[in-house]
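Each field is set out underneath.
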Amino acid sequence: MPLEQTNLMDHVIATAGGSAAAPDAADRDAPPPAPAPVPVRMPDHRSADPPTLLTAHGCWYPSANPTGEHVAFICDRSGVPQLWSGPARGDGAHVLDGDPDPVTEVSWSPDGRWIAYTSAPGGGEHTRVLVVRPDGTGRQVLAGAEPGSSAHLGCWTRDGTALAVTVAQPSASGSEHTGAGHLPADADGAPAAPGAKAPGAAWSERGGPATLLGAGTANRAPAPDPAAPAQAAAGRPVPDVGPVRSGGLAAYLVDPDGANAPVLLYGEEGAASLRVCDTSPDGRFALVRRGPRGRREALVLDTASGRTTFALHVADGDPWIGRFSADARTVWLRSDTDREFAALLKVRLDEEGAGRAVSVAVERDRSALDLLSVPDHGRWALLAWNVHGATELESVGLPLADEDGGVGPRHRPVLPHEVVTRIAPLERGGLFAALAGSRRRPGIWELDQGLVPARAGWSARDEDAVPPGRPPVRPVPLRCRARDGLTLGGWYYRAPGRDPGRPAPCVIHLHGGPEEQERPVFSPLYHELLGRGLDVFAPDVRGSSGWGRSFVDADLGDGRFAAIDDVADCAAHVVALGYADPVRLGVMGRSYGGYLTMASLVWHPDLFRAGVAVCGMSDFATFFAGTEPWIAQSATAKYGHPEHDRELLRALSPMSRVDQLRAPVLAVHGEHDTNVPPTESEQFVRAARERGVPARQLTLRNEGHEFLRADNRRLYRRAAADWLERHLDPTPPP
């Protein structure tokens, strides 16, 4: 018999007297948690679609209504990513929110009455969560409307009556940041007490068998405590984190109709991340993802008491890490605990939500599970596997509540493009998928119950990826070996019309993260560079995802020096192959790639003739002092603690070696970037000029850490290509 649907909001209020848990005596004098969000009504958007729409545009992040007949999605046809809606079959898509604030996530409620989405006012990093009716009316900000605050989208309850949101506590001084990363004394990465851990040890810690390849013992990840997963699986409660203090994150349930006040589900002081990924159909449990990079955890919470009943390490990457089964006796998780590559794990729960057993349901050799999506009924799962950067999609049948066997039939559709970025399953079967490829912009495709793909009518056609006359370039995969023997991967793009037998000017492009991965998807930036006669090699240096946890961990601690050398080794490899001209090499990258660009220019000053550093960190001390508190918390787990690892971070900072800079450098930054403040670019450019090195900075208005507006993206691409073209001279010699 189907389970009776219970309103989770009513369940929590009825069992906990209006809060997730009554505070005990020890918490009564504690500072309050991040304040509950206050919904703010917004004017309805009823104007017509913008008069000028881009032919070459992208559509992504689909979320379907309960019938599967309409889809909400993000589209940049008007020049900025906005919330759109359209029929599953047809061309009549329209804008639901015409404000110029970029939209980043979308979720249609299970009852079909609301569409929730996240937007970034002014293009900055402080986001807010809104809802709107499918007809464009009733628009309101549910969380993040308060000055200095930020909010992130969580899941809907299964009946659609409440939405989970994560709220970040505003800093006491508004937007001013001070101190060593704003980290509390007992934050992850700092020793809890004398003798607990040596300084610098905690931030490199990872669970599982992640050993650092080609490294000594100085930065080797310690083995996990074998009792920890056993305790969780045996049902012993994991100690609660405790109440939220200033600067923390808190997750609330918010009723868009306003019938119930927001209800606190979970809060944590000094948190690095927090997202409610699912609630059980009966409202008793919530599935929460928390923790810094490299140490993410899935928590099962008893919503009545706020008690954590189960915890398990889960993989980095996509934050939607799992779902409950229809009877709440199983949790399906995307996890790489005790393994190199993420797989689908099955966690059996008892009636109190404690773990009884953890087993691997589906795994693939040397391929990580990138995306996991399970419909409410829980009869099957959709899995997206990362195969050296490309995606293989798979549908698997899941066992029923009383079955202990493995998964059922498995189906693998043939996809028209290389990478899946989002999966939206349909209750009746089939799905909507956001696809990207090396020769098209992101688009949305429907896969019917037989998993046969068909492009949505409002998604751009493949032939409209770029203006006529210069088709996109399909990259070729390359593998090379670092000086310590570690195998690196990447993709090489050859400029059209270039003589294959003649070395070309080449730009080494470095992705962010560093846990991101280079994927074979269409890049307007690469297209611009290739059109100027510049080749592009986009490698995955150590620290990148997609190659196993040991590869991700190989840049921890002093392993980051090896990551800087990886850039030089990649350049040497394409030169040795005869692809690249050794005297016309450039380097560029964004975010962590921007840091790595600056580091490569000062560690290998005679290798590159020019660089473009985008939103990069030039000094870890100033970065930790200026970034957001929750970002500092997560970055500590990756780079090191700003106090206990001060000397290592100083040695790794490009500013500490700026005297070695020889190559001209262009720095690009968004004016509202609070992930990596613009001062990181400013101080590097200023130091370069003081030393007589040509340097410029381009500051993009109304942008944050991501460049989301079409005019600014175009300006950035052209400025970067102009700079590299000028200094690398792509015209072949006579």
Observations:
- The two ends are 79 Å apart (CA to CA).
- The CA atoms of residues 168 and 249 lie 5 Å apart.
